[in-house]
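Usage

Read records sequentially. Each one opens with the input sequence:
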Amino acid sequence: MSVMAAVGDVFRRARGRTLTAFRQGARNSSGGLRVPAGSILCRAAGREGWAWPRRGAECSEVVSGDEYQWKGPFYFIQGADPQFGLIKAWAVGNTGSGDDEWGEEIKLTEQAVQAINKLNPKPKFFVLCGDLIHGMPGTQWRKDQEQDLKNVLKNTDQDIPLVFVSGNHDIGNTPTRETIDNYCKSWGDDYFSFWVGGVFFLVLNSQLYFDSSKCPELKQAQDAWLNGQLAAAEKRKCKHIIVFQHIPLFLRKPDEDHDYFNLEKSVRQEIMEKFQNAEACMMRVWFWSR
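and closes with the structure output:
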C-alpha cells in the first residue's frame, strides 16, 4: 500500500455504515485477533464472512469481538468546528466569502493534535463533530481548506482513530445527494455506528433532520437504518449508547423553542421517541456544535 493510500484510509475509516478502525475478527494461533487487510467480519441474513466495505454496501451487524465487552473505564476526545476560514470571515464581517485565510485555525488545530498525542493512556478515538471547514459546498476556498485540515490531522497518533461527523458547512444547510457523496469521498460515511469497549456509538447526519427537501430519500434511509441500529442494541441488551451529531436536539430542555442551534420541535420529538422506545438501553446522548 502506498503512503498516500495509507493516509487516505485515516480519513475514510467510516465505510459500510461502520468504523473499520475497530474491526476485529478471527483469532490467530497466539490467541490474538487478525483480519484480512481492509476487511471487516459481517453477519447478514444469518451468514457470516469477510467483506471489504464500499460506498453503498452495508452489513446488518458488524462482529467486533472484544469491543462488545465492557472491560473498564476509557475515554475519548471530542472536538467540533475546526472550521478553517471562520476566524478571518468573522473578523472582516463577511462569513459568506471572507474565508480566504486560515493560518490561525491551522495553529490551533496543530496545538490540539500535539496535546492529544501526548496523552497517556491514549484516548480510544478522536471525534470531530462537524463544520470541519468553513467553505460551503461549491465555494472558492473549500478544497484548499480541506487539504490543509487533513495535513494537520494526519499527524494524529496512528493508534488514535479519527472519527468525523458532518455539519452544515460540510454538506450544506440544505444537503443534496451530490454534496453528501462528495463529503463521503473525503471523510467517509455520513452516518454509521461502532462499538468500543462495550459502548455503542452512533454518528448521525443531522442536516437530514434540518432540511432534507432536496434528498428526502436519504433521510428515509437514515431513519430506517437508525431504527435497525436501536433494535439491534436493544436485542444485545446494550446499556450505554452515545450519539454524535452536529446540530443538537436541544440545548437546555427538550421542549425549548426552536432556534438556529437546535432542531425543529416536531423533528426533535420524533427522534427522541426513537431513543425512548429502545427501553433496554440507557441513553447517554452527546450533542455539540456551539
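Summary fields computed downstream for this record:
- The first strand starts at residue 14 and ends at 15.
- Confidence is low (pLDDT under 50) at residues 1-7, 24-64, 280-288.
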